[in-house]
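# step 3/5: fold
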Amino acid sequence: MLEPADSTGRVKVRVGSVTMVTDLERLIRKSESNRKKVNVGPSTDYAPEPGMDIDIRGTTFEEAEPIIERYIDDARIAGLEQIFIIHGKGTGALRRKVQEYLSKHKMVESFRLGNWNEGSSGVTIAKLKMDD
């Protein structure tokens, strides 16, 4: 956990290099005896009710793609019209892959880089289609 649970019982956790929000009751303490059985790769189970953003900094696009896909699906179900995908600035490789993916996604109406006060080139903001 990165922070203590909030008043609704939700916590911010980091799995690999992906930061997610989930219910505290969904977390399971990993004991020494079952450590070898646990898969610690990237998880697409980031939150039952998505927030406005998802942070995929430090991942490869191959790791991030299923996380983004589920996030878009959950955001549409939750009625979010706009989402923020935080990919960081770095070399720009992840940003390019994310934007290429969004340009072909049937649920994305449009996307843009963040403004200076939104994270600039480290964030892609996507407008979702709400009528399909």
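# step 4/5: annotate
The beta strands are 10-15, 18-23, 53-55, 82-86, 108-113, 123-128.
# step 5/5: archive (pending)
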